[in-house]
Model the fold of this input.
Amino acid sequence: MSTTPALEIRNLTRRYGTVAALDDLSLTLEPGRIVALFGENGSGKTTLLKVISGLLAEYTGEVLVHGHRPGPESKAMVSFLPDQSFLPDTISAATAVEMFSDFFADFDAARATTLIADLGVDATRKLKTLSKGQREKVQLALAMSRRARIYLLDEPISGVDPAAREVILNTILAQYDPDALVVISTHLIADIEAVADAAVFLRGGRVLMAGDADDLRASHGQSLDQLFRTAYQTTRS
Done:
């Protein structure tokens, strides 16, 4: 395993007009970890993932992805699953696999095809005919079929039933390279807690707390779910 941090962020600030979505945020994450990214709406989770992935370029501070600033080299290492659908409604899952094969040199088309089938999705059907959960499974299969060094998954289990959540989480665990960093942004703390090695809590574009999941539980005497509720209730009062 590499000794270089997968992700180093120093004094990162990103503004939308006068509002700081990220406010002097600093964070270091190591490879080979599943990191849960928690926070309320507007805490900066999605903005942070977009900066790391290279989709947002206007910011101050420093972001290093395996030692590279966001750009072509870093983008080749990062597989980003956004929280919104990113595929045309009119194509099939099979066509989406072909598209990803053209776009990404590290994409494993055979793996994606098998994974889509294993997830119970008919790859010949147009995406507009699939349920929300089935579409999310297709998008997850595409994202996890890249041989990436960092996976950024923005709300991969939101809006689907508990059974589908379990399938999606099991898919993430089964498919990612153990030397890769996986960052999962979610509001569903209880669902993700069992698989998270570490947790980062954001509040107002800053890191409220971060650390190894077991250490956070031990030091606070609470589950991550309880800690989330307590921390954000406290910061409101």
